[in-house]
Amino acid sequence: MDKINEVIANEMAAFEKYFKEAVKSKVSLLDRIMRYIVNRKGKQLRPRFVLLSAKLGGEINITTLRAASLVELLHTATLVHDDVVDDATERRGFFSINALWKNKVAVLVGDYLLSKGLLLSLDNNDFEVLKILSEAVKMMSEGELLQIEKARNLNIHEEVYYEIIKGKTASLLASACGAGASTTFKDKEKIEKLKLFGEKTGMAFQIKDDLFDYGNENIGKPTGNDIKEKKLTLPLIYTLNNCDKALKKKLIFILKNENKDKEKIKFVINAVNAKGGIDYATKKMFCYRNEALSILHEFPQSEVRDALEQLVLYTTDRNY
User: Fold this and answer.
1) Cα atoms in the Cβ-side hemisphere of radius 13 Å centred on 280
2) Alpha carbon distance 106, 112 (integer Å)
């Protein structure tokens, strides 16, 4: 990440300062929670995609910083709400908002972040950026609800999985790239091209996240968590569609009835590894990554393009 940070070091510093100001509140409880969020920032991949996509088309400006802040506000809001939905007590190795301040406060904090993001754009007439990001919020909600719907009866196919992750993850990364590009590019075709680049990268990113659930890395969430939540991700979908009837029946029974049993979860993980689910998902992840890089390489070579390429490679090579 060092080379990436060199290219946008000043811009990231300006973004962080702008974001810190954007989340401030006159309500002491809320302001304290906002400081907690700011001080425990994650990898901030999405703002980096915003800034680099913008810089590919010209000099980063105040509209770009607002776009990056909006993306981070929306992303943080969804994480806070997700932790409530999933009853998660940890986020990035720290206590989640709902673990410290309970669900009612966490839901209101998520709502506050969403409203701050919307007002940030509306107050500055950033209607194009707002339109791009509002579409992402809609798709993210649809993706999450589709996943919940399919998890109830474990009736999911590979194409449905791609539809789910396109909505719940790839849409925000696509919008991050599109929003950033819209602040410097005049050519709408190039803006759409960068949105597609972000979407392909987001697909690869989510498959990588789903692969972590079947590994041993320390990633800030328990291994096997998706199994506990009955989430059918690509490694497991492939295994269910490519194993004998007896094993398929056993795996489905575990998912429906024994998904909290540590030994049973370990059995599912071992089965997925043995039946090629990990290898298959990894290949699909690289396919999406290569499609993203192919789109990126349609732009002229520059240090900004190189940094974006490194950022894409990071999404698939990361260890957490």
Assistant:
1) 17
2) 10
Fill in the amino acid letter for 173.
Answer: L
Is 319 in a helix, a strand, or coil? Answer: coil
Helix axes 303-317, 277-296, angle to 10 degrees: 170
Distance in angstroms (rounded) separating the CA atoms of residues 244 and 258:
20
Tabulate helix, strand, coil % of the chain (nearest 5).
75, 0, 20
Measured between alpha carbons, how far is 44 from 219 in angstroms, rounded to an integer? 16
- Give, as one character, the DSSP assignment of residue 229: T
Contact between 108 and 130 (Cβ < 8 Å): no
Fold of 2-317: Farnesyl Diphosphate Synthase (1.10.600)
Is there a contact between 190 and 166 (Cβ–Cβ < 8 Å)? no
Structure tokens at 216: 């041993």
Look at residues 181, 201, 180 and name the one whose alpha carbon lies nearest to residue 70.
Answer: 180
pTM (global) more than 0.85: yes
Question: Contact at 8 Å (CB) between 218 and 200?
Answer: no
Tens-of-pLDDT digits for all 320 residues of the chain? 777 888 899 999 999 999 988 888 889 999 999 989 888 877 889 999 999 999 999 999 999 999 999 999 998 888 888 888 878 888 777 888 999 899 999 999 999 999 999 999 999 999 999 999 999 989 998 998 888 888 777 767 899 999 999 999 999 999 999 999 999 999 999 999 999 999 999 999 999 999 988 875 544 444 677 888 778 899 999 999 999 999 999 999 998 888 888 899 999 999 999 999 999 999 999 999 999 999 999 999 999 999 999 999 999 988 76
Structure tokens at 17: 């300062």
CB-based contacts of 50: which residues, under 8 Å, 6+ apart? 64, 67, 68, 71, 176, 177, 179, 180
DSSP per-residue letters across 68-117: HHHHHHHHHHHHHHHHHHHT--EETTEE-HHHHHHHHHHHHHHHHHHHHH
Residue 300 structure tokens: 């002229």
